[in-house]
Write a structure and sequence with these properties.
- By secondary structure, the chain is α+β, with helices and mostly antiparallel strands.
- About 50% of the residues lie in helices and about 5% in strands.
- Strand 2 and strand 3 form a beta hairpin.
- Helix 2 crosses helix 3 and helix 7 runs antiparallel to helix 8.
- The longest helix has about 35 residues.
- The chain binds 2-acetamido-2-deoxy-beta-D-glucopyranose.
- The site of 2-acetamido-2-deoxy-beta-D-glucopyranose has 5 residues, from helix 4.
């Protein structure tokens, strides 16, 4: 019967030669094997305890980061999708029944709020939401808050346009026609209509599912509104994008926000 002798993997240095398997008995190498296993287990334990300690210290140093992951654990994994942005006249158009319906249909039933039991919210380190009943709060999903804000700006804008036209001309038209440069005014309005639809698609694309809690009215009372302030989001680095774009800039006479409309 063949006897297989234990042969350790060669380690670096002299040790190999001294502890050659030829000079150790099977009993010795079994004992060494045992000792090595114990040492490995011990080292693994020390490593795990060390890593745990480091993570604990890090989470104590940056409590908000730790809290965000607790909070976002309530949100399911969301797949990435490629989506070509296209002008959609229904969304970009002026305020009418069809376009308002399209905008409204972006907000799901429940108005973009989710319901959480107070105990679950607490378990996930969420501050109080808007109280629904004694055991439940509702929380806003940021993407719907963003769409809501953009939709409100849109409604406000077209209401202002109507008021402007009512003051400055006879019958109300849907687009502002100034007294001097009607053509430019018309073009700017078309540009703005484009902006509403463009930003709509940007908000849907970013799909920010950050959970937003109720506004703290300042006197310790929990408000029945969500303003989104004080909530940490996960953001791409604005500075990196700014620096990259500025570094590789194309020369342009325009500056700032409003000059970008080429005339
Ligand atoms: C524009 O949006 C409406 C409403 O959601 C939709 O029915 C239509 O298919 C869209 N059109 C295009 C060109 O994407």
């Amino acid at each position: 019967m063949a006897v297989f002798q234990y042969k350790p993997l060669p380690t670096e240095g002299e040790d190999d030669k001294e502890k050659s398997p030829l000079t150790t008995t099977p009993a010795q190498s079994k004992a060494e094997h045992h000792e090595r296993t114990l040492k490995t287990i011990f080292a693994a334990c020390v490593f795990v305890i060390f890593c745990g300690g480091v993570l604990l210290i890090l989470s104590l140093m940056e409590p908000e980061k730790g809290l965000r992951s607790f909070r976002q654990a309530l949100i399911p994994e969301i797949a990435m999708e490629n989506f070509v942005w296209e002008n959609n006249k229904t969304f970009a158009g002026t305020v009418d029944e069809e376009s308002n319906h399209a905008w409204d249909s972006l907000i799901p039933p429940g108005h973009g709020f989710i319901l959480l039991s107070k105990s679950k919210a607490k378990k996930h380190h969420l501050p109080p939401g808007i109280s629904v009943d004694e055991n439940h709060d509702r929380y806003s999903i940021s993407m719907y808050h963003q769409i809501h804000c953009l939709g409100m700006i849109r409604l406000g804008y077209f209401a202002a346009v109507d008021r402007f036209n009512g003051l400055h001309s006879g019958p109300s038209t849907k687009r502002p026609v100034g007294n001097q440069d009607e053509h430019a005014a018309h073009r700017d309005t078309l540009h703005l209509e484009h902006c509403f639809d463009y930003l709509r698609q940007a908000i849907l694309c970013a799909g920010d599912t950050t959970i937003e809690w109720a506004r703290d009215s300042g006197d310790g009372e929990i408000d029945s509104q969500v303003d989104g302030w004080g909530v940490e989001h996960q953001c791409r680095s604005t500075k990196t994008i700014y620096d990259f774009t500025a570094k590789h800039r194309a020369e342009n006479d325009a500056e700032g926000i409003a000059n970008v409309i080429q005339r």
